[in-house]
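Q: Hi! New to this. If I give you a protein sequence and the SMILES for nicotinamide-adenine-dinucleotide, can you show me the bound structure?
A: Yes, paste them in.
Q: Okay, here:
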Amino acid sequence: MAKDKVLVTGGAGFLGSHLCDRFIKEGYHVIAMDNLITGSLDNIEHLMANPDFEYYHCDVSKFVHVPGDLKYILHFASPASPIDYLKMPIQTLKVGSLGTHNLLGLAKAKGARMLIASTSEVYGDPLEHPQKETYWGNVNPVGPRGVYDEAKRFQEAMTMAYHTFHGVETRIVRIFNTYGPRMRLDDGRVLPAFIGQALQGKDLTIFGDGSQTRSFCYVDDLVEGIYRLLLSDYAQPVNIGNPDEITIGEFAEEIIRLTGTDQKVVYKPLPQDDPKQRRPDIRVAREVLGWEPKYARSEGLKPTYEYFKKKILTTEQAK
Ligand SMILES: NC(=O)c1ccc[n+]([C@@H]2O[C@H](COP(=O)([O-])OP(=O)(O)OC[C@H]3O[C@@H](n4cnc5c(N)ncnc54)[C@H](O)[C@@H]3O)[C@@H](O)[C@H]2O)c1
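A: Thanks. Here is the predicted structure of the protein with nicotinamide-adenine-dinucleotide bound:
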């Protein structure tokens, strides 16, 4: 019998490639769609020879086509780190709006269930802490992060409209900071930045005074939460993240201990609209999906560190 097909947009990216792995493992036929503006074929190289895996090079903001049946669509294509979406503001707005619209059209035509990758950024610089799904957010639409935050807010609204108006089965995951192997060292996010600086013998840069907080979720936990949400019958947004909150100052110390570096911490001014605190309220995920994170930072950071160490080594050897 033919296997059910799953389309993962942004499949050559950090999260998309882990989702491809998971769906292959669960016995699906997986199509990864990507235009590689921030992703890399390195992330899916190990899947290329698998007969249950296909790669389509495609800009989903323009047009999407998949022949035959499709059971699930996971829309993960989008520049995701501030450094990327500040460089590509129009593509970011387009993939969240036009790309989402194209994929919802595909879901409707195929009778597929579609899950979209939303983000904790829909809460902006939150005035409520921790953030529950019922919080509407505090976003500056014309600030530098507005291109990402508003694209994602529009994406949620469009998805909900297709659900209520066209009866398309949809799921919305609001992802909080996630980390793990296959992140890019130069994506500007704090975790690869700190590990990369420590491994390259540079001082660790903190933007602001280090009192701002983040909570980091290991990628395997996130993928499990997404898998459960997709298979659930819950169409409202669900936060998936790790509520274990840490200040950036404490986190820098943790990375210094992990890597054994003798580098110090240096401080630079905080960028505009940088959220001061972030922590998911995961009661809905617990109650509806029976999900909670399993990996402590100390466990998730080890394979991540090993991945970056190997990456730096192979890059240096290739020079
Ligand atoms: N990583 C996180 O912590 C996090 C947090 C919240 C939300 N998200 C969301 O999860 C998704 C994946 O994030 P990531 O961290 O894996 O980022 P990533 O940059 O590694 O992956 C995104 C992928 O999308 C591709 N892409 C971008 N625009 C495209 C287009 N128009 N057509 C086809 N492909 C396109 C990129 O080439 C890349 O491979 C994004 O939608 C992001 O907003 C991620």
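A: The two ends are 48 Å apart (CA to CA). Let me know if you'd like me to explain how to read the tokens.
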